[in-house]
Amino acid sequence: xxxxxxxxxxxxxxxxxxxxxxxxxxxxxxxxxxxxxxxxxxxxxxxxxxxxxxxxxxxxxxxxxxxxxxxxxxxxxxxxxxxxxxxxxxxxxxxxxxxxxxxxxxxxxxxxxxxxxxxxxxxxxxxxxxxxxxxxxxxxxxxxxxxxxxxxxxxxxxxxxxxxxxxxxxxxxxxxxxxxxxxxxxxxxxxxxxxxxxxxxxxxx
Length: 205
Description:
By secondary structure, this protein is of the alpha/beta class.
């Protein structure tokens, strides 16, 4: 199944004499949402799923959560990786507790939309509720987790559950002459935040 571009997630490309068409096109490509669907594209889905670590909630997380909330008509199911699942992650000792991460996700979702049902639950594997709850229609993830979303569909197929439409969002910061090279190529990442905190802690010792 091929990816097909459907829309821009946000518009931050401005007409600037210092930017040529190639640079603008590159920015647009980095801001595109892709969808894999088994049917015609829908505006809303009764239930949307997503999952992740959601450690030190950052703009990348907030983009995924916001898109999920606005695609859902009734419910958002969000799986948050439990501590045991993350024990081998970089900077694991700096991870926020599962309670804190679930609380931050729930709090942010209510700020986005208050008229939905939110199930924010700890998960002990990569699939979470998506392989026990048949009544889910779509899943939201980053381009980095696209293969994981596809793996969810393969697992659902084994249980004869309906396959999910996949919304895959680019979370790479667009290049800009106003950004340093380091910031322009830095992916929004909880690991990056933890490593920054770890370096800061080490430099103070």
